[in-house]
Amino acid sequence: MSWLRGATTAEGDVVDVELADGLIRQVVPSTDQADPADRTGRTGRTGPIGPDDVDLTGQVLLASFVEPHAHLDKALTASLARNVTGDLAGAIMAIQTLLPTSTVEDFAARAQAALRIHLALGTTHLRTHVNVGVQSGMRALEALVDVRERWRGLVELQLVALVSNPLSGQPGRDLRQALAEGADVAGGCPHLDPEPHQAVAICLDAAGEAGLPLDLHTDETLDPRLLTLATLADLVERTGFRHGAAASHCVSLSMQPPNVQERVSEQVAAAGVGIVTLPQTNLFLQGRNHTVGIPRGLTAIGPLRRAGVIVAAGGDNLRDPFNPVGRGDALETASLMVTAGHLAPDEALASVTSAPRALLGLGPVSLTAGSPADLVALPAGSALDALAAAGAARTVWRSGRIVARTHVHTELTEPAERPRPLPSSAGANRSGGASPAVHANPEREAVR
Predict the structure, then answer these.
(1) Could you give the CA distance from residue 338 to residue 331 in angstroms, rounded to a whole number?
(2) 375-379 and 59-63 as β-strands: parallel, antiparallel, unpaired?
């Protein structure tokens, strides 16, 4: 049993949180904030500070972050496989030069290096797409299955089998093999297939046969002629698929007329398909052929949310040809959901916490009794400060146990004191004339 003392919640309350057996046992107003007369009735916090208690004074305490869309097998390869054109086609070409020669050990090393970055910054659950089939065989999947088991209890991984095209050929068989060999979710890129709508059906069939969820790279293009999201929603609803379906990217939806955005969003909501938007990578890859009014490349976040669709946000790529500058920080993603996605700060935080938890089929986490103690604390005066500053200093709990702790120490040189101006009585200069006025036109200065 331990206490987290003096923590600030996202709502601005200052509380003490008791942890026991991997759960939050109780949350009470901080004893430092409460009236002493009120403390006598409280349990657990009236005695001395325990050896496992943590002082979180001046820190914001949040549910730990969930990454709904990563590519751990490609992470940290930007210097090994350069994207010459900077767009999606260039990224695919670059990674194709690297994956075929990567070993199981290479994939595992990259994945674990990326996981350490994610965990240190507060992510405790992560869904990663893993390339299988033509380019790398089952080597990446073999590596990630081992990494998933090795890191269980620290970071929980879900592995999506990401196959190439055409799905009507060998890639479709690769998908079924990957699901049989340890992948948790069926994946693919139907919009890049010669027969996009047929490819959606093949992926859905494979997931249904395995009794596993589906998460497709969907319409990662600004071309409005491609809208396989509507096909996916229609098939999920008509087939009664109930294992969980997600569509990632969905960029072309933002290029549709408002009435089409609204209609497809309502269709997606009715089918129960969740959406993952990926601001870092799509801001980097999309729109390079537009010289005026460059589109942002995000999906139609507003219409989807208004229709009741779960919209989660992910980091996607971590310093690879698809995004050479990713940080692996969910708060960077949330910040972009404010600036590029136009969400309110609290909505942006939900897009990297509660929304991806729901989309990935995980239980909710909140600062309430009985909730799993999967938490992250960082120095800040409020949740908005935490989102805006997003420093590296953080403490991360997984099932009530501290699994990462980062300290940052800053030393600054303070500016020297400025000389004080001479008194006005000393205004006459040595020649007997008046000293120049500091403000020749005070009224004008006041309105600058």
Answers:
(1) 11
(2) antiparallel
Give pLDDT, residue 55.
96
State residue 272's pLDDT score. Answer: 98
Question: Are 72 and 57 members of one domain?
Answer: no
Q: Which domain holds residue 230?
A: 65-364
Say if residue 137's pLDDT is above 50: yes
Q: Which two tokens stand for residue 141?
A: 């999947």
pLDDT value for 425 = 57
- Is there a domain that residue 438 lies in? no
Whether residue 7 contacts residue 53, with contact meaning beta carbons closer than 8 Å, is answered with no
Q: What is the CATH number of the domain that holds 149?
A: 3.20.20.140
Q: How confident is the model at residue 48 (pLDDT cuts 50, 70, 90)?
A: low
Number of domains in the chain: 2
Residue 207 shares a structural domain with residue 220: yes
Whether the Cβ atoms of residue 316 and residue 71 lie closer than 8 Å to each other: yes
Exposure string of 214-248, with b = 16+ CB inside 10 Å and e = fewer, is bbbbbbbbbeeebbbbbbbbbbbbeeebebbbbbb
Q: Are 82 and 321 in contact (CB under 8 A)?
A: yes
- CA-based end-to-end distance of the chain: 59
CA dist 98 to 83, 103, 154, 295, 315, Å? 12, 10, 29, 30, 21
Q: What is the DSSP letter of 32?
A: T
Supply the pLDDT for residue 163.
97
Same domain, residue pair 154 and 40: no
Give the integer Cα–Cα distance in Å for 167 and 379. 48
- Average pLDDT value for residue range 245-260: 98
Mean pLDDT of the 125-146 span: 95
Are 382 and 349 contacting, i.e. CB atoms less than 8 angstroms apart?
Answer: no
What is the spatial distance between Cα 194 and Cα 74, in angstroms, rounded to a whole number?
25
105 and 9, same structural domain? Answer: no
* The pLDDT of residue 188 is above 90: yes
Average confidence score pLDDT of the chain: 91
Is residue 164 within 8 Å of 133, Cβ to Cβ?
Answer: yes
pLDDT of residue 431: 47
Integer Cα distance of 131 and 80 in angstroms: 17
Query: HEC states along 186-218?
Result: ECCCHHHCCCHHHHHHHHHHHHHHHCCCEEEEE
